[in-house]
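Usage

Read records sequentially. Each one opens with the input sequence:
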Amino acid sequence: MPEPSPRRQNILRFIREFARQNGYSPTLQEIMQGCNINSMASVQHHIGVLEEQGEIRRNPRISRSIQLIESDVSDDTTPEGFIDVFLLGAIAAGEPIPVPDSGSWATISDEVIRLPADLLHNKQNVFALNIKGTSMIDDGIHDGDIMVMETAQTVNDGESVAVWLKEEQEVTFKRLYRDQASGMIRLQPRNDEMSPIFTSPDNVEVQGKPLLLIRDLRR
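and closes with the structure output:
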């Protein structure tokens, strides 16, 4: 595989330095600005080439998901029958928590969980989040658990989802209900001591639905 061009080497350096300073990967907009690239189309082209060359990996459905593949670990292939799931950060099962900016709530992955593919029903668009808080405790979801989630943009009433609250720039994990009378969205905790969140449909963006719960029984 040929070496990346000077322009793409500069993009790789920017991604590495941005992640080191901020703890999460840059958006395409930030790459365009940070590398003095004239258009978003050009950024997308360079990122696509870097992905094809094996320099980066990303989930196009998740913002800030660009991961550098360093040469000293590039040969660490995933065994057949397993899927590497990126642990992207924390999600609140309590009060919503702030995220880096309005473009995304997924921080750069600093840990990978290797799971059997059949345990995830062979789904590929998956990611994992640490659960913080106790608002879903009546569903058996505890503070400190890891929730493996499938990327999703739609949800049925009553399903548990990770949702992005656009105005608040926050993310939370709740059951979602649509109130036909008021037209509002109700994000319902599963803890009788906590109150639901009411918001407009335009303020809610579904990010994922749970696939698998992981708990350290030694806690």
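Summary fields computed downstream for this record:
- The first strand starts at residue 56 and ends at 57.
- Residues 71-76, 98-108 have pLDDT under 50 and may be disordered.
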